[in-house]
Amino acid sequence: MVDVASFMKVTFFLLNIYNKILLQTIDMKRCLNVVCFFALVVAQIGCKKENANPEKPAVFSLNSVKVNGVNNGFKYNNLGASPTITLAFPAKVDPASVPAGVQWRSAAGSEVPYKVTYQNENRELTLQPESPLSGLTFYTLQLSTDLKSQAGGNFQVPITVELRTGLDSTNKFPVISDDSLLTLVQRKTFSYFWEFGHPVSGLARERNTSGDVVTTGGSGFGIMAIPVAVSRNFISRNQGLERTQKIVSFLTTKAKRYHGAFPHWLNGATGETVPFSAQDNGADLVETSFLMQGLLVARQYFNRTDAAETALRNDINALWQDVEWDWFRQGQQNVLYWHWSPDQGWAINQPITGWNESLITYVLAAASPTHAVPKVVYDQGWTRNGNFRNGKPFYGITLPLGPDLGGPLFLSHYSFLGLDPRKMKDGYADYFNQNRSHALINYNYCVENPKKYYGYSNRCWGLTASDIPGGYTASSPTNDRGVIAPTAALSSMPYTPEESMWAMKFFYYVLGDKLWGEYGFHDAFSLDQPWFANSYLAIDQGPIIIMIENHRSGLVWDLLMSAPEVQGGLRELGFK
Hints:
This protein has three domains: 49 residues; 102 residues, Immunoglobulin-like (Sandwich), CATH 2.60.40; 395 residues, Alpha/alpha barrel (Glycosyltransferase), CATH 1.50.10. 38% of the residues lie in helices and 14% in strands. The protein has 17 helices and 21 strands. A hairpin with a 4-residue loop joins strand 5 and strand 6. Helix 4 crosses helix 5 and helix 4 runs antiparallel to helix 15. The longest helix is centred in the N-terminal third of the chain and has 25 residues.
């Protein structure tokens, strides 16, 4: 290799000669001969310099990467547990440098031991993990400048290859009968309310990280689950009675109420209101209706004539009769309002209109023995004079009511934990058909999977309100974030028994190592990201227990529908 000083001298010498030739108007042939002569001189100088100073080893790079024989750049998804990675280089790689220069790691940073074989005179490396990789996990293969060629050259530019394994579809738990699986899911889910219920009030914590914050509506769901637990022998009748009385006593003596209605959240130890938002620091009529639904179910279940059960019924009746449903018309308007605050008044000003989860609010308001509302409030407020109709087909299924594609599935769950849609028809809908259509549209949307999220299938479906990475949202076909919530499919069991059972088996057997925990299924997951919540939410746990039971025996439906006031309220609103 020519050093800079020698090269410059020769170059100037050649230019000098060339200029002289041009000035003397020598012909082109002579000019070419001169240039060739001096090119030979430069070459000879170069050879002498190379011999004097040997060339340093050249850096080298990566020719190609293939995973399982496919070249897809530097990102690979849906891999099996034992992928084969082939790296090709232009130079012969020094095997001694490979452990430091090629590192395979999980997203958590732990090293993945691998075995390596060499081909093409060490220009190709084939890597395989020594033990199977975990499913639905991110890994990286990092090539650093510590990698060297046999000539001593360094790898030129660090490279990272991203790898993500796909779903491990093997069963994580022994297979049991479908009936046993239903019971197992109900029992484990019930433990959220039973074992994790607030120690002072017995009410349900909002979520598994809520401390003293308890939820009014979620507690109503937990109360409804107690008769299920007794009937399934998870607890005794006396235990169920004792817990229900503890809750009712707290609601009667400590819990804050506003015109008989409860706030969204309470402090489970003191009964004070925990604001849901700055202006939502008073009554929440919809949450109150979910609580009252549960209390009426308990009243109908604990129907013996002994002193304890009689006292419980009397206490529940007092709470039920104290709710001033008609006051929430905000000045005798023909609509009910959701919120009222002692210092903000009607500032939120949110009317309760259909179609959403709040049908139970109007049924109980019409059913109240002390503060009932007339049918015109339901007609103009809830149905909006019939404007809550839909009537359009989606996936070949006509949806009678509600938003296009049905909205989140909790719309077909919360009010119908106790209201039996099999026995509800009016001029707008057959309500079992409404809820079944809603669930089937949600199912078919997930099977079609228009956004192409990884993992959606006929076994992995269900969009409803749940936790999502970094927050919470009401997932639906029109708000699809790639997150599946087990409560969506499982609480639709009465409407889609076959499709819901497919989902339950998939959640338990295939995803159980990541999704199944202390209180049953965690709140939500995404196979696309992948992400698994570590949370449990009362409003998602309760419907799983109750709706599975309604599918199995109709118990909770039968209990609420046996209440004479509820029957009267339904008749008042025009249900047949």
